[in-house]
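From: lab user (bench 3)
To: helpdesk
Subject: output format question, protein + adenosine-5'-triphosphate

Hello, I'm new to running complex predictions and I'm not sure whether the block I got back is the full result or only part of it. Here's what I submitted:
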Amino acid sequence: MNNEIKTNEVFLSAKKLRREFGSGDNKTVAVNDVDFEFRRGEIISIVGESGSGKTTLAKMVLGLLNPSGGEIIYEGKRRDISSFAKRKLYWQNIQAIFQDPFSTYNIFNKVDAVLDDCLRLQGFVQLSKEEKFEKMKDACQFVNLKFEELSNKYPFELSGGQMQRLMIARIFMLKPKLLIADEPTSMIDACSRATILDMLLKLRDEINMTIVFITHDIGLAYYISDTVYIMEHGVIVEQGTADEAILHPKSDYTKRLLGDVPKIYEPWDFSKAV
Ligand SMILES: Nc1ncnc2c1ncn2[C@@H]1O[C@H](COP(=O)(O)OP(=O)(O)OP(=O)(O)O)[C@@H](O)[C@H]1O
Ligand SMILES: [Mg+2]
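Helpdesk reply: Thanks, we reran it on our side. This is the complete output you should expect:
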């Protein structure tokens, strides 16, 4: 819907990206020769039913899973994350928040250590304790968390909503170029869900971050996205602006998904966000 963003450069793209699991009769082609382009500041949604290959695609973009074929082009060159140093540099710019916030954290790290790790990843090792605390407090403030109340807690001592916010605080500190949000809001209630979306969109505006939302929710995709990709069995069956892909779909699959969403035209109410 924010079509002016379309003029921005493509900084990450994929050609014929493929991932297979297993072999012989047990072979699954989770991602089947897909092409895509992500631009700076763009909001993208990848929509598809369970098992369509969304998380597998995300993990390849993140460098957590090797492709079986095809290539990822990052900043004009074939992506190279072959060494630890190169991966570290890549992860300064390419980050994710996952479906299950519990899986994101090392359970033995308290909140202050989680945030301190972000400073380390960015190379802020020389800062004094006070300077570090300032940065951590700023990040917590951005997501309406009180650093003093949480710094000494373990992630499992936080509520689901607090944990989601902590994930966004990490992103605020890291300021990546690309954030992949794999169903980040499915575990929490509708009000927190709107708040979290609001925070992510604010971050997009502030730092021109690209966000890829991975979701089952085609209505949500319509309201927040510039570009929508629809996946079915590892294949991108529809792509375009939110209006093109969702209001004027070409594929039968998209039409069927839309048939399951009778209230797609009902606007989201972000004003209830706190
Ligand atoms: N590590 C793995 N080993 C074997 N098969 C896998 C593995 N990971 C994913 N798959 C298979 O690849 C396909 C795509 O899985 P993926 O997790 O990418 O789907 P998804 O679109 O993210 O689904 P959901 O919406 O449920 O999260 C599925 O058939 C899945 O069983
Ligand atoms: Mg998934």
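A quick orientation on your result: Residues 58 and 161 are 23 Å apart (CA to CA). Let us know if anything else is unclear.
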